[in-house]
Specification:
With about 260 residues, the chain is mainly beta. About 5% of the residues lie in helices and about 45% in strands. The chain has two helices and 14 strands, in the order E-E-H-E-E-H-E-E-E-E-E-E-E-E-E-E. The strands form three sheets. Strands 5-6-7-12-9 form a five-stranded antiparallel β-sheet, with no helix packed on it. Strands 10-11-8-13-14 form a five-stranded antiparallel β-sheet, with no helix packed on it. Strands 1-2-3-4 form a four-stranded antiparallel β-sheet, with no helix packed on it. Strand 6 and strand 7 form a beta hairpin. It is globular, with a radius of gyration of 19 Å.
Length: about 260
């Protein structure tokens, strides 16, 4: 059993996941998380937790976020060719004076492939400030060979029309700080553009491939989104259909 916590303002939710071979054999592994609200008291490194309210069975703790905050948008998806379940949550907050705060939480429930990168489309004319990142602490030899997983924060940088965060691939480092099962990482920034629904990119840790996820809140650059048909960059043909005209362009810009 692994316990994680999600904080929304001053509310906390604890999660437990049960891993059983028979459930996986019969494809029932996607309802094995449950959560319960908890209270937290303390300071620094000393905290006490108490249970509050009933256990919500078959749901992950992050699924409580939109229940207590109507501005949260969530997308549940499954890792291609593997089927691992994951949830991407996003919350956009108007800060005033034309500024907006973007917060993303990428949660991996049970994918062994895991995630090693996350990228949000950001147009060149936008001004992005205060990029941030939150991961988890590793301890007690929880990595390969009973050695702690590398805790190095993901690198944040502009990348061909995106703001991207990334760590090493599995081929580069089997102990890299990937988003492994029953774990969520958060990504954030402030931007001078309001939100629209767009497509983000997620890198798969063990395969090195990338997948796209549409219908996510992203900054609106004033260009109306169309229907995604091909990646258009000539780099990741496994993501979508290759450009039929072979007229490749920048990442995410299509043919």
């Amino acid at each position: 059993v692994r316990i994680d916590a999600l904080a929304t303002s001053d509310r906390y939710f604890g999660e437990a996941i049960y891993v059983t071979q028979d459930d996986a054999v019969f494809a029932n592994q996607n309802n094995n998380a449950s959560y319960r609200e908890i209270t937290a008291t303390g300071a620094g490194s000393a905290w006490d937790f108490s249970l509050l309210g009933p256990t919500v069975r078959g749901k992950s703790a992050v699924e409580a976020w939109p229940l207590v905050d109507a501005g949260v948008q969530q997308t549940t998806f499954f890792v291609p060719d593997e089927g691992g379940k994951a949830i991407l949550s996003s919350r956009v907050t108007a800060l005033g004076e034309g500024q907006f705060h973007y917060e993303y939480s990428l949660y991996n429930m049970n994918s062994d492939v895991a995630f090693h990168s996350f990228a949000v489309p950001v147009e060149a004319q936008m001004t992005l400030t205060n990029p941030g990142f939150t991961d988890v602490a590793y301890r007690n030899g929880d990595g390969p060979g009973n050695v702690d997983i590398d805790p190095t924060d993901w690198i944040s940088s502009p990348s061909a029309g995106h703001r991207a965060w990334s760590t090493q691939t599995f081929a580069q480092n089997p102990s890299a700080n990937a988003i492994r099962w029953s774990t969520a990482f958060n990504f954030r920034f402030d931007c001078d553009a309001p939100p629209r629904l767009g497509t983000v990119r997620i890198g798969l840790y063990k395969t090195g491939q990338k997948m796209t996820l549409p219908g996510v809140q992203v900054p609106d650059g004033g260009i109306a989104p169309g229907v995604s048909f091909c990646a258009g960059d000539g780099i990741d043909p496994q993501v979508t259909t290759p450009c039929p005209c072979a007229n490749v362009g920048q990442i995410g810009h299509g043919c």
